[in-house]
Structures are given as structure tokens and as C-alpha cells.
TrEMBL record:
<feature type="domain" description="Glucose-6-phosphate dehydrogenase C-terminal">
    <location>
        <begin position="194"/>
        <end position="477"/>
    </location>
</feature>
<dbReference type="InterPro" id="IPR022675">
    <property type="entry name" value="G6P_DH_C"/>
</dbReference>
<comment type="similarity">
    <text>Belongs to the glucose-6-phosphate dehydrogenase family.</text>
</comment>
<dbReference type="GO" id="GO:0006006">
    <property type="term" value="P:glucose metabolic process"/>
</dbReference>
<dbReference type="Pfam" id="PF02781">
    <property type="entry name" value="G6PD_C"/>
</dbReference>
<dbReference type="InterPro" id="IPR036291">
    <property type="entry name" value="NAD(P)-bd_dom_sf"/>
</dbReference>
<dbReference type="InterPro" id="IPR001282">
    <property type="entry name" value="G6P_DH"/>
</dbReference>
<keyword id="KW-0560">Oxidoreductase</keyword>
<keyword id="KW-0313">Glucose metabolism</keyword>
<keyword id="KW-0119">Carbohydrate metabolism</keyword>
<dbReference type="GO" id="GO:0050661">
    <property type="term" value="F:NADP binding"/>
</dbReference>
<dbReference type="GO" id="GO:0004345">
    <property type="term" value="F:glucose-6-phosphate dehydrogenase activity"/>
</dbReference>
<comment type="function">
    <text>Catalyzes the rate-limiting step of the oxidative pentose-phosphate pathway, which represents a route for the dissimilation of carbohydrates besides glycolysis.</text>
</comment>
<feature type="domain" description="Glucose-6-phosphate dehydrogenase NAD-binding">
    <location>
        <begin position="9"/>
        <end position="191"/>
    </location>
</feature>
<keyword id="KW-0521">NADP</keyword>
<dbReference type="InterPro" id="IPR022674">
    <property type="entry name" value="G6P_DH_NAD-bd"/>
</dbReference>
<dbReference type="GO" id="GO:0009051">
    <property type="term" value="P:pentose-phosphate shunt, oxidative branch"/>
</dbReference>
């Protein structure tokens, strides 16, 4: 795509997602020299803004991007345009098309005959289908590819997700659609496939004979803070477990793909997701944060728009069983929550006890992928404590990215994924059958939780979550160690 003209059209350009994620990611690509100088970034939204107003609105978030300078920002803004229009108006989208033709021709498309368009739908999913059906007939490039990026939530259960997929399929082919799950673009998550399949070391151990439990953790140190009205409709299971964390699980558990082609990789993910038994209420524990008297942090129901009697989960721990030859009986535990004690996302693969225990109760080996903050892969091992004594100590073989790869800046997940869309690489995007397999696991339990079948356990804002969650995890065989 680098030699041809490309336009990135951000629909919903004045919204939060565009301002905080999409546009800074495009700027990040520009700073790395990966967004061609001929590329136009065209914001589209209802607000009647001048181009200068648009630049003023997006600049504060762009200035924060690593490596930004006044000069580079000025050049990038020179590539950023704005068109205002309604989302239900064919005429407005036709005017967008005319503006795109003008920009593409200016960038040399009339000579090369090539012009590609990437439409980023930074819009609420409920309007995806209708907006797409309005712009598709009038605003697509006739001189190159057209690709469409959409963001979760894709529906709120299996049926509504299938409906959304079917509605979009009336307008776009599966190949034109890129369903983003930004956890698939995180550097340490991308390393899972490399680490597993480019090294022999762990391959013989990667199964139920040697692995006792796998735990995937996601913690955020802030609550819903004003987004409560929105969050109450969703809950933590739909917000991060059914998508981001289940994707991490699939990467950890899938079989070796036949090749690295997008279809082969996604075939394996679908296969392993289909082996997961649907969750029941016994497999999940939910919590909801309450005010912290000491720090003055509010409880979930103190947030505007959250009903006082809400049973919405802001914390959940669930145990999954993968019924296949490799994993049957190994609990895969996902634990996630808002308003906890720290920001952390990691995958912990805990091995079984060493047979025979020559050294008494040596701690188990554990391989940890730290997704954030500070990306790392480390293996917790036992070693002899140096000195004249015979004591053992638990220590780590450590691949912390910032010390091992000091010169590399780690791209933001959105940057990586937008680069993939521009290159046409679908490997790290969610295919329709994958989405269906993921919803199938949660459908029944989510309906029961929506009906208020379970009262969430309270936990204090800033704590580790409900105490019962530790018991839940311990009961499934996970042994806590130092930095857990
Ligand atoms: C989003 C969720 O998808 O992911 C948010 O809707 C959550 O609630 C966010 O905060 C977490 O992403 P990251 O990249 O900050 O870990």
C-alpha cells in the first residue's frame, strides 16, 4: 500500500475512541514512517467543525504520542482533513466520496489509477449496520480495496452477535471486515505464538501432564468513574472477559497452526474455543466494588446512572475446562476486575509439583507472560541460594522487555492492528465463527446473571477483590506464590 494512495476515514471522529486511540495510533504509524506521505486521514462526524477546529480537538492526544514534536505534528495535521455530515444521509456520504476523490487525485491516484480506503467505524455498534448500508453504495473506492474496522461490543449475547454479523454481511464480505480486539495487538500477547512454536523448550510440557492450572488476570485500579450508566448494561464479563481475556486463553491453548496464514491461525483458535464447555453458575464468581472509607473512593452504585440495586459485576473469576486431549481437567481461570489494587494483565502457566520432591516442598515452576505494565516473560524456578548453606530460593529466568530490548519502543496495540489492516493481514482480527464460538461459552450464564441470579460479592475499591475469589482459585488447584 505504500506506493499507492490510501485514505483512512474515521467515522465518529469527534468521539472518545477516535481521539484517544484511533488517531493517535495513526500518528504513531506516521512517526515510524509507516503511514505514507500521500495518505489522507479524514475525520467524519456530525459536528459542524472547520478543519482548524478539528485539528485543535485532536492535537492534545496526539502530542502525548511517543516521539511527537511540533514539526512532525504539523506535518501529520497537514494530512488530516475533516468532513461533517449525518450518518443517515446518502448525500452527505456522497459529498465525503467527492472529497476523497479530490484528495486521492491530489495524491496521484489519477495517474496510478489506485486508491484504497480504510473506514474505521468509531461508532456505537448499534448503528454499524445502518451506517454501513448508507455509506457503502456511495462512498466506496472504485479504484482499490475497501476495508472496514469495527470495535466491540459485538452484540450482548450469541443471538444479537449473530444478528449483527449477518447484518454487516449484507453490506461487506468477511474479507473486508476487521473486527478489532486490541488485546491481540499487545506485544506480549503477540509473542505467545512465537514463544510456543519457535522454541522447543516448552513444547513437551505444554499439556495436562505437566501443567496444573493456567490463570489469566486483568486488573484495573480505577472504577467506572462516570461511565457507570453505560457499564451497567454490559458488566465486566462482556467488557473484557468474553473478548480480550478469552482471546489470550485461545492463544495459550490452541494447537500449532498449519501455517502462519490468518486463516490457519484463526482455524486453530476457533477449534480450541469450540472445545470449551459452556460456563455454568458454578464456574463463575462475581463481585461489585463498594466505597473505600479510607481513600474516599466511591462505590460502583455511587456512580451516576447506576441503580442502587444493580447486580452488575465489576469483578469476575471464572474457570473454564477445555475438553480435548491436551487440556481436559486443567482449569483455565480468568480473573478480572475494576477498582482493584493495581493495573496488571498477565497469563500464569503453573506447572505441577516436581515428582519425588527431593527438596521438600519446592515451589512449582510458573511461566508468566506479563502483558502489562512492563511487558515481560519470566519463568519462576527454584535455585540454590548462593553461599555455604543448602537453602533453596525461588527466582526467575527473566525476559523483561525494557532491559532485554532497550532500543525498541513498544507500539501501542492499536498502532500494530491498524498497520495490519493497511497491510491486509487478518491474523490478529476476530473472524465471525470465532466470535460465535466465544459467545456460545458465555450465553447461558450471562442470561442468568442478567436476570439477577447471583448477588455480587462486595469488595472494597482498591483491594484485591472479594476474598472468596482467592478460595475459588485455590480450590481449583492454583498455588499462590510471591508476586501473584
Ligand atoms: C476496553 C474496555 O475494551 O479495554 C475497558 O471496554 C478497559 O473497560 C480496556 O478499560 C482495557 O484496555 P487496556 O489496553 O487499557 O488494558
Amino acid at each position: 500500500f505504500r506506493s499507492a494512495s490510501v485514505s483512512v476515514i474515521v467515522l465518529g471522529a469527534s468521539g472518545d475512541l477516535a481521539k484517544k486511540k484511533t488517531l493517535p495510533a495513526l500518528y504513531g504509524l506516521f512517526l515510524r514512517g509507516l503511514l505514507p506521505a500521500e495518505a489522507a486521514v479524514v475525520g467524519y462526524a456530525r459536528s459542524d467543525l472547520s478543519r482548524a477546529d478539528f485539528h485543535d480537538r485532536i492535537s492534545p492526544n496526539l502530542e502525548k504520542v511517543d516521539g511527537s514534536s511540533d514539526d512532525s505534528l504539523a506535518v501529520f495535521l497537514g494530512q488530516c482533513h475533516y468532513v461533517s455530515g449525518q450518518y443517515d444521509s446518502s448525500e452527505d456520504f456522497a459529498a465525503l466520496h467527492d472529497e476523497l476523490i479530490r484528495l486521492e487525485d491530489e495524491a496521484g491516484a489519477s495517474e496510478s489509477g489506485e486508491a484504497h480506503r480504510l473506514f474505521y467505524l468509531a461508532l456505537p455498534p448499534k448503528v454499524f449496520a445502518s451506517v454501513s448500508a448508507t455509506f457503502e453504495p456511495v462512498a466506496m473506492s472504485q479504484r482499490g480495496w475497501n476495508r472496514v474496522v469495527v470495535e466491540k461490543p459485538f452484540g450482548r449475547d450469541l443471538a444479537s452477535s449473530n444478528e449483527l454479523v449477518a447484518a454487516l454481511a449484507e453490506t461487506f464480505t468477511e474479507d473486508q471486515q476487521f473486527r478489532i480486539d486490541h488485546y491481540l495487538g499487545k506485544e506480549a500477547a503477540l509473542n505467545m505464538v512465537v514463544f510456543r512454536f519457535a522454541n522447543l523448550t516448552f513444547q513437551p510440557l505444554w499439556n495436562r501432564n505437566y501443567i496444573s492450572t493456567v490463570e489469566i488476570t486483568f486488573k484495573e485500579p480505577f472504577g467506572t468513574e462516570g461511565r457507570g450508566g453505560y457499564f451497567d448494561e454490559i458488566g465486566i464479563v462482556r467488557d473484557v472477559m468474553q473478548n480480550h481475556l478469552l482471546q489470550l486463553l485461545a492463544l495459550t491453548a490452541m494447537e500449532r497452526p498449519i501455517s502462519l496464514s490468518a486463516e490457519d491461525v484463526r482455524d486453530e483458535k476457533v477449534k480450541v474455543l469450540r472445545c470449551i464447555e459452556p460456563l455454568t453458575l458454578d464456574d463463575i464468581l462475581i463481585g461489585q466494588y463498594v466505597a473505600n472509607e479510607e481513600t474516599g473512593k466511591p462505590g460502583y452504585t455511587d456512580d451516576d446512572g447506576v441503580p442502587d440495586d444493580s447486580r452488575c459485576a465489576t469483578f469476575a473469576t471464572a474457570a473454564f475446562n477445555i475438553r480435548n486431549e491436551r487440556w481436559d481437567g486443567v482449569p483455565f481461570i480468568i480473573r478480572c476486575g475494576k477498582a482493584l489494587n493495581e493495573r496488571k494483565a498477565n497469563i500464569r502457566i503453573q506447572l505441577r509439583d516436581t515428582p519425588g520432591q527431593l527438596f521438600g516442598d519446592a515451589a512449582r515452576n510458573e511461566l508468566v507472560f506479563r502483558i502489562q505494565p512492563s511487558e515481560a516473560i519470566y519463568l519462576k524456578v527454584m535455585a540454590k541460594k548462593p553461599g555455604l548453606g543448602d537453602e533453596l530460593v525461588q527466582t526467575e529466568l527473566d525476559l523483561t522487555y525494557h532491559s532485554r530490548f532497550p532500543c525498541e519502543t513498544i507500539p501501542d496495540a492499536y498502532e500494530r492492528l491498524l498497520y495490519d489492516v493497511l497491510r491486509g493481514d487478518r491474523s490478529h482480527f476476530v473472524r465471525a465463527d470465532e466470535l460465535e464460538a466465544a459467545w456460545r461459552i458465555f450465553d447461558d450464564v450471562l442470561h442468568k446473571l442478567d436476570d439477577g441470579a447471583v448477588e455480587p460479592l462486595p469488595y472494597v475499591y482498591g483491594s484485591r477483590g472479594p476474598d472468596a475469589a482467592d478460595d475459588f482459585v485455590a480450590a481449583r488447584g492454583y498455588v499462590r506464590s510471591g508476586d501473584y
